Each structure stands twice: as C-alpha cells, then as structure tokens.
Amino acid sequence: MTSLQRSWVESANRPDCGFPLNNLPCGVFSTTSQGPRCGMAIGDFVLDLGNLEAHGILRLPYGLLLGLPFWNGVMAAGPKLWADLRAQVTALLIEGSDQQAAVEKYLVPLDAATLHMPFTLSEYTDFYASYHHATNVGTMFRGAENALPPNWLHIPIGYNGRASSVVVSGTDVRRPWGQVKGPNDVAPRFAASARFDIELELGAVVGVPSDSGHPVSVAQADAMIFGYVLLNDWSARDIQAWEYQPLGPFQSKATATSISPWIVMKAALEPFRTATPPREVPLLPHLREPGPMLYDIALEVGLTPDGGQETIICRTNYAEMYYSAAQQLAHHTSCGCPMNVGDLLGSGTISGPLKENRGSLLELSWGGKEPFALTDGQTRCFIEDNDTLTLRGYAKGQGYLIGFGTCTGKVLPALENPFTA
Ligand code: MN
Hints:
Blueprint: E1 26-31, E2 34-42, E3 45-48, H1 49-54, H2 72-77, H3 79-93, H4 100-103, E4 107-109, E5 114-116, E6 124-127, H5 131-142, E7 158-160, E8 166-168, E9 173-174, E10 177-180, E11 189-192, E12 196-197, E13 200-206, H6 218-224, E14 225-233, E15 235-236, H7 237-243, E16 257-259, E17 264-265, H8 266-269, E18 273-274, E19 294-295, E20 298-304, E21 311-317, H9 325-333, E22 344-346, H10 361-364, E23 372-373, E24 379-380, E25 388-397, E26 400-412
Parallel strand pairs: 6-22, 8-16, 9-26
Antiparallel strand pairs: 1-2, 1-5, 2-3, 3-4, 6-7, 10-11, 12-15, 13-14, 13-22, 14-16, 14-17, 18-19, 20-21, 20-25, 23-24, 25-26
Helix pairs in contact: 6-9
Bound molecules: manganese (II) ion.
C-alpha cells in the first residue's frame, strides 16, 4: 500500500499526521481509570486493543495477549499473527467499516494516555554502522589515517549494552559521574561528565527468537524483526575516551538509552525499503543481503534549552547506514549466540555526508572545537544541564507519513559527588 488508506478516524487522514491507518504502531498506554495495556496509535488517538480483545471484538488465536503491559506475547507469536492483527485492526478502522459504532468508544485521545515502555527488554546490543559517523569519530579519536578500524568494512561491529538502562521517551536523564582523563591531566579523576552527548539511532526489536548454536541468514534475520523504534544512545564522551580501549564503551553508554514509545511494525515500512550503499569491499557470503533491507526514514534532532525554543541541530536519513539491522542480527547469531524475544539492536549513530547530517553533538561540534549556534543565540558543544533533546522520524509516502512519534529526554544536573569523603 503506497497511498493513504483512509480511516473513519478523520485525524488519521491528515497528510501531516504520523499515525494514519497505514502505520498502526504498537504502544503500551494507561489512563486514569485503567492500568497499562497494548494499544495502536491512529490519528490523534490510541486504539485500546486490550479492551477490544477483552470484549471479543478482536480475536487472536493464542488467547488474550493485548491486555498485557507489553507486546512480547504478540511478538513471540510470530509473523502470521502480526499480519492477522494488522488485518483485523485495519478492517475495524477503515473508512466505511460497519464496526465504527462498536469501535469508537475504544479510542482514547493521545493526550489522555500515558505511554510506557512498549515491550519488555531482553538484551540490548549497540552497533557502529554508519560510514560517516565511524569516519568522523575515528578521525577525532585516532586520526584520519586510522579512522575506520580494519574490521569495519567486513563486519558490523558492536558491543553488548545494558537492557536495564533502556527507558521510554519522556524519562529524565541524570548527567553521569565517571572516571575521566583529559589530554592535559596527569592522572585520571572522578567527575561529572562534561561532554554528555546523544546518538541518533534506530532500534530494531527482535520478535522471533533464534536457537543457540544456529546462525541465521540475513533473510531469516529480517523476518525475525518485529519493528523499529527511535533510539537515543546517551553517551558520555569524556568517560568513553578514557575507557574504550581495548574492550569498547562501558560506563560511558550505560547511564540511559531512550526509545520512542511506538514500535513501527516492519509491515508499515515495506514501501520504504531501500538498499545499503555500494560495498567498498565485497562482504563474505553470510552477510550479503538478498534484497533491500534499509528504509528511507527521515530523521531529525531538536535541542531545546531550559525554557527556550527548539533548534533542529541535525537532519539525516536511516538510508545512510552501511549495514542494515538484518545484517547486524545475522552477524550477532554467527557464533551461535541465541537471540530472544524483546532483544533490542541499536543501529549505531546515523550520520550522513553533510555537516547538518551529523547524528551526535561530538560530530556537530567536531570534538568540542567548533561550537554550533542555537536559534536564540546560545551555542553548544555538548549538552548543558536542563537541555531537552528530541528525536523525530518519519517515512514519507504519497499523501501520508509513517511517523515514529518522538523520543525525548531532559538532562538533569549531576548529583553532588556521590563519593565525597
Ligand atoms: Mn550508539
């Protein structure tokens, strides 16, 4: 479906609405009268799937799954059920449906709903798969001649992150403390991070598990992915620079990772599939893509100082990535590592070729050497206390958008030194 599917929910038909009938993203919401359950965004509303199922209007073959405060049950049921659910909800909401009168009372205005984590995290892995980002950061950290590590063009490199620190959009993030050692410091010191940053990423949510000892192909990996979220991998650059060799980021990335509250199902993104860029060197067969596995998703980051107005500091596109989530997932299983329902894979920072396409403040300010201006005249190199960072994304169809909602977080000042003698 590459044109707007009209719904009797009028707000869903607006060309600037990110939640048309074509989208049906999956979230978990609560209201003042009832606790968290599954819902799908449609126009200015959340469709209350938990209660539609409880009242027999929606029927899934595996028992009640939608009254739960997470999507893992649906995810684990597999792609046939995902398609069945989308078909049932589409039939309920499509223009001319004879179900309108029965369904209307299950629409909750978005501004009356509190959004929660849409799924229960199993594990979280973060990759480093944008050519432009890796080149920029490598140049700053190691020099232009060593920018791309020797493995980079052959495997999507990554590290195992912390599922425990993944939070939903709207959660405040506290500036972290950590061990740092600047180029002019004779010894390391314990300090609040002075170079706190974002990473603009997309997260792939694994719906179908894989077995221990069984590597999956790129095509199989693609079929395992339930959907995608916006992801902000908050990063303390000063802590990272000191700790990262040889085992990679650790505490610098473990303060928090924010995700958007809506999982956009792969089915909604089908019309926007696009191929990864040409390979600089051929990949080994197990990482070759059988078809296009990236998506054309426009992305942006806004920075809003405390009480001030927002400046869009970055505009880029997911299509800039060198490796797709399917390649990353296939690579992840290549040693026999099992993947679980609810695993989350961060794409890596999504930067493009232009300065305005840089998906982190580290790159935008070139390591803090080139402050950039906000619309109110302030400048930034890294995040200041009480700044709010907001990620947005959408795929653009003919007369409609597939929106991801927002992934936002405010950075609170660091605590007083927690270890003063
Ligand atoms: Mn990252």
